[in-house]
Amino acid sequence: MTKINQKNILIISRLFICLIPCKSLLNASRYFAIITYNEMINMGMAITEKILSKHVTEGKPKKGSEVGIKIDQTLTQDATGTMAYLQFEAMGISKVKTELSVSYVDHNTVQIGFENADDHKYLQSVAEKYGIVYSRAGNGICHQVHLERFGKPGKTLLGSDSHTPTGGGIGMIAIGAGGLDVAVAMAGGAFYLTYPKVIKINLTGKLRPWVAAKDIILKILDIFTTKGNVGCVFEYGGEGVKTLSVPERATITNMGAECGVTTSVFPSDEITKEFLKAQGREKDWIELKADDDAEYDKVVDINLSELEPLAATPHSPGNIKTVRELEGMDVDQVCLGSCTNSSYKDLMTVAHILKGKKNNTNVSFVVAPGSKQVLENIIKDGGFTDIVSSGARIAESACGFCIGNSQSPKTDAVSLRTSNRNFLSRSGTKSAQIYLVSPETAAAAVITGKFTDPRDLEKIGIKYPSIDMPAQFYLDDSMFIFPKENSGKVKIYRGPNIGDPPASDPIPDTIAGEVTIKVEDKITTDHIIPAGSKMKYRSNVPKYSEFLFEVVDPTFHDRAEKIRDSGKHNIIVAGLSYGQGSSREHAALCPMYMGVKAVIAKSLERIHKANLINFGIIPLTFKNEKDYDSIDQADELEITNIKEILEAGKTVVVRNKTKGLEFKVDYDLSDRQKMILLAGGTLAYMKKQAK
Ligand code: MIC
Ligand code: SF4
Prior knowledge:
Blueprint lengths: L5 H8 L23 H4 L6 H7 L2 E3 L7 E4 L3 E5 H13 L9 E5 L10 H16 L2 E3 L6 H8 L6 E4 L13 E4 L2 H8 L4 E4 L2 E8 L8 H12 L7 E6 L8 H11 L6 E3 L4 H9 L19 E6 L6 E3 L7 E3 H4 L6 E4 L7 H11 L9 E4 L4 H9 L2 H7 L3 E2 L19 E4 L15 E4 L2 H10 L31 E2 L29 E8 L6 H4 L12 H4 L11 H10 L3 E6 L11 H8 L2 E6 L4 H9 L3 E5 L13 E4 L2 H7 L3 E5 L4 E6 L4 H9 L2 H9 L1
Parallel strand pairs: 3-4, 3-6, 4-5, 6-7, 9-10, 9-12, 10-11, 15-16, 15-18, 16-17, 18-19, 21-22, 22-23, 23-24
Antiparallel strand pairs: 1-2, 2-8, 5-20, 13-14, 21-25, 24-27, 25-26, 26-27
Helix pairs in contact: 4-5, 4-7, 8-9, 12-14, 12-15, 19-20, 22-23
The site of alpha-methylisocitric acid has 14 residues, from helix 4.
């Protein structure tokens, strides 16, 4: 593969435009902030605008327009990381250009077979070579650990995981993206996003006992649902903010991802300062608050005092009911953990509730502390003993049950989980009914064996445990491997599980092929390419592609292969909000490998759309949603003159040859994205620029 040097990466991302370099253009951390329109006319600014204005390097900070921003920190996790680093290696950069890049191992920690261990070793050697901090398996879930040890208010963080917005709990603009976008950011390139609309969520009042931060975000999901929020940021404000600790704020920003927003952000205040102090990082604190006269695109008020325990019911985080409505339902499994709810506060709350109690004999109870730090601190403060004594099965500090790579429940089980996604089959058991709840509601079910409003625990003599955050956490960073000087000579380890990323072809001038699959609304990336037990094939694209759309239609792979090998293109037709959920670029990379050239949907989610473009698949949306109804699976579709249409900004007309119909589709693409598509994806585009 042609090597792409640092200079070219910078050309590609056009970092030079709109920047006033201080000493060296290559020292990204020394750029002066550009002056935004708001600053010029002295208008009040929201937190989102304040952080973005200091990071925009390209384009106008105008809502709805594409801007490039400088990324201060990146994170990757192992399941998306191997591909991200293979792509980073292909760029020919000698060291990462960010202030900090961290490579976490937290997803594929179940090592059945050699694959995951091979990937871990590869990631460790890449980290050592390129100046990346490596967080070893066992150190914890990336988002929890990053919040504890590295998150800094006012900074930008790009992560190859959709729950990267967890960092918004500490006042960061933290965004989830595909691995390739993160690789470009590590190489010093800008990250491109639509300059967002800002929705203020104005919190008033104070949560009542037994009502938790999880119930706040479930209420927000009830209001905003999982679709229709692309291009927005949730910014929290109001008096209620002061009543929430950093982990509680992080629970809320974490699950904003389920609404499809670009990110969510809280102010950085005295509570943030106390948290950072307890982490031995007070020096990382800065104050961040919105100006009093900041203007928002929308303001939604939530009175915390009025909230009650809620649950997301199968199979969407947006299907919200009160726990009272579900009361009495038998529960088979309770899982406490995940990057949403596995903090010290969450686990100590549950420990106090369960003190002296035993778990119901019908309930399989699993606890996965979010990090080694959480585990060590609850051990030190006695909570761990109470959890173990109650009968909990202790899982390692990793994603585990949340991604379905362990603890799949029994057939038809009712499983209560404190995690953030309950998509069909994600648990590994297709018939299971997954409910997303707070740690308090989960603990109540452990005791009673039934869906129970945790407020009713008072009736059996359990007092609400109000947990204070420690003034000082017990700290131990020995599970990180920090980069050393002169590590450039390190040999990268490549076991048999590590393969080159497949190359994409330039988009053809005519896309002619079959509708390989027609799917409904709200198809998630878990539907497109399952994780769980299949996730160990992330570094082996041909093998992983065998599981495409397995949950929806297991015949997809064989049919797509036949169409591709006959010289025709595969086309996916979808409903609203296609590609919800994760950042996994395999949901685009594997379809690309199978010869998918276009996705025609009613609407597409942000990260997935960006991933499709990165891998040379054109994302199109119906001009008239009714045209969706006129298409059937196996219809022959044709789009001609694509190059000319994209270059001239003309309307795309799709011919349905089977039905003898024509319909129009839109493409919402920046000039940069058009060039990427015409080149056949981001890597191909970069190679072209480098020549
Ligand atoms: C998820 O929660 O769905 C994951 C697994 O963390 C994904 C990333 C992946 O698929 O590797 C995400 O959220 O982006
Ligand atoms: Fe891991 Fe689950 Fe969080 Fe994804 S949502 S990062 S799988 S804990």
